[in-house]
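Students often ask why inverse folding is considered easier than folding. One informal answer: many sequences map to the same fold, so there is more than one right answer. In these notes we will look at a single instance of the problem. The structure comes first.
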């Protein structure tokens, strides 16, 4: 194992390159994508070796007309608060925050967006994407229902939640 360790300078160079790629990703023009659908959620991961607990990453995926799924945005945040989601979405809007304003990175208004039940996400989504239909994520809904069902009845309940 010791022979496979990277030097400090190699790790530093790798981090620099990854950061440059991330910054380019955040500035990428989105006007060439025919976005039909966006999916918004937060995932929680243990990101740092010397810190206990998981950190939240706000993630937005776009689904193109072709059906291809492409990562649109990711932002490190501790919570799924309204202000956090506003910041994540503002990347696609002009500085005026007007829903009718030109999209900063060229993202067109999606037809449909899926969110979980987080109130901050729903409020930010509906404010900044007023023309987009919003649907509650069925996977989250199913998971929430199954968490309320007694454990011995879970298998039977799954049949009805297809």
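Output (designed amino acids):
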């Amino acid at each position: 194992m010791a022979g496979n360790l990277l030097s400090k300078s190699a790790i530093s160079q790798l981090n620099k390159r990854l950061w440059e790629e991330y910054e380019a990703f955040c500035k990428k023009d989105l006007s060439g994508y025919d976005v039909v659908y966006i999916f918004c959620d937060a995932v929680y991961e243990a990101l740092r070796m010397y810190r206990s607990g998981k950190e939240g990453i706000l993630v937005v995926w776009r689904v193109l007309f072709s059906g291809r799924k492409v990562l649109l945005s990711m932002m490190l945040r501790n919570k799924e608060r309204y202000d956090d989601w506003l910041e994540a979405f503002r990347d696609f809007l002009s500085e005026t925050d007007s829903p009718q304003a030109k999209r900063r990175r060229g993202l067109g208004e999606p037809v449909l967006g899926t969110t979980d039940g987080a109130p901050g996400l729903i409020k930010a989504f509906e404010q900044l994407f007023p023309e987009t239909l919003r649907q509650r994520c069925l996977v989250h809904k199913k998971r929430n229902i199954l968490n309320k069902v007694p454990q011995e009845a879970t298998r039977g309940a799954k049949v009805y939640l297809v």
